[in-house]
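New to this. Help decode both lines:
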Amino acid sequence: MLTKNISIIFFTILLALSLYACKPRTKTIILNNVAIDVPEDFSENFLGEVVDTDNTVEYYNSYGVQRTTAIYTAAYKKYKAAYTGIINLEKARNDIVNGLKNNNAVQEFQIVNEGAAEGFDNAYEILLSFYYGPNKTYHKSFSMLHDNGILQIICMYNANSKKDDKEINNIIKSVRIIENNTND
């Protein structure tokens, strides 16, 4: 009887540890005063010097990760006060669409859906599809204007990857504004 009780306790602990180990781990990043919950393997300054910043930019940072089936990026660019209005959602949308549409390696480019992001003011989502080589690829993007800047969350992933589709949607849903907190 004692051996049976010990076995039950052991298997209960083992099951609890297994469930905990399978739970995705996240961390909260703060870009200016926007908080986002991202997987813990996101690294800071992911885009490094890839993004041009000039004297109009007050603050810029990015986080992201490259995986087997996807590349994720969260970036925020805040402009100096003198450059208020330099960015708008239409320009951000057009930059994303035209950047892919005009890429010679991209074939069968298509806008799958687009529109105002649900639950956010001043935000826009767009899902694009294209073939890059033999695989159909999705490019999902969320752009939000805030505090004279723009937050962009982007994921380029294999169209068959339901896991990446769910992950990028969870990241977008986690976006929230934190009052009186900046990275200055």
